[in-house]
Amino acid sequence: MFRFANIDYLWLLLLIPALVTAYIAVVYHKRRQLREFGDASLTAALMPDTAHKRMHVKFSLLLVSLILLIFALARPQYGTKEQTIKRQGIEVMVALDVSNSMLAEDVAPNRLEHAKQMLSKLVDRMTDDKVGLVVFAGEAFVQLPITCDYVSAKMFLNNINTELVSAQGTAIGTAINTCLRSFGSEETEASRAVIIITDGENHEDDAKAAAAAAKEKGISVFVVGVGKPDGAPIPDGRGGFRKDKNGQVVVSRMNEEMCREIAQAGGGMYVRADNTNTARRAIQQELDKLGKAEIETTVYTDYNEQYQSFVLIALLLLIINSFISSTRNKTIEKLYDMKI
């Protein structure tokens, strides 16, 4: 497994576009000054020793060297040994609605982004728990198998959008069943929970029956309703709103009653998410009440440092760069009959 031990140093890579932009601006400024000074062929004759291509090569080498040194600072490592460790925690599967109605903006910035922000904070609070992620609309798919790798969980979460599931709808029952299968068949003393985050619109299957089946297996089903009962129009991505076949703007209204019934059938709690952290705190409190038990997870424990290779290559490029002159070397050009 590959990772960066000091990943924050990768923010320095933001300097690269700035340096490239500055270099281009300087080159352009110099060329404009030369054009103002006189004819291009005349100015070239007055500066016969200038080698513009070499200047570009030297800058490119410096840029690549800087990138490699930044990677070295971030300490790239490669995991070489797996170890199964035991922790005291719970197992949580999250099913996130990605239907188009989740783009409605009755909560800021919209229902889907608000749900992702809430989940990100929920993952930040986890230490020894396992978490998995299912996305659903008219169908449901496992986006992230249940794991203790919170970095990967947040990475997958950030990449979620409404295009992940092509079939539109809100198949909550299918999502619950997918979560149940994702826990695996092995028995555990740890508590298990399913968190459904949805606006509850366009309900298609028997979600209450699926929630009741989860309850029979000792798995609590919590439902977070995102949106407002009054509803909001759905942006069409072109500055307007989605319309029905009659040309009327479609208003997406959260089905709060259905969300509450599913949570009740699953032996869990329903809470509505608004523009505060109330819903996240309520779910966190309920999860904290669940019984923790010993759970196993496989992690990499031995990591080999790989930064030496990056430093070595960077130094080699800097040495090569030092031997490249910004001006023409007539002696070398005569020896190699080279024209630049």
Structure notes:
With 340 residues, the chain is of the alpha/beta class. The chain has 2 domains: 2-78 and 303-336, no CATH class; 91-291, von Willebrand factor, type A domain (Rossmann fold, 3-Layer(aba) Sandwich). The protein is 42% helix and 23% strand. The chain is built from 11 helices and 11 strands. The strands form 3 sheets. A 6-stranded mixed beta sheet has the order 5-4-3-6-7-10, with helices on both faces. Strands 1-2-11 form a 3-stranded antiparallel beta sheet. α4 (111-124) runs antiparallel to α5 and α6 (172-182) runs parallel beside α7 (207-216). The longest helix is centred in the N-terminal third of the chain and has 23 residues, at 15-37. The two termini are 45 Å apart. The mean pLDDT is 85.
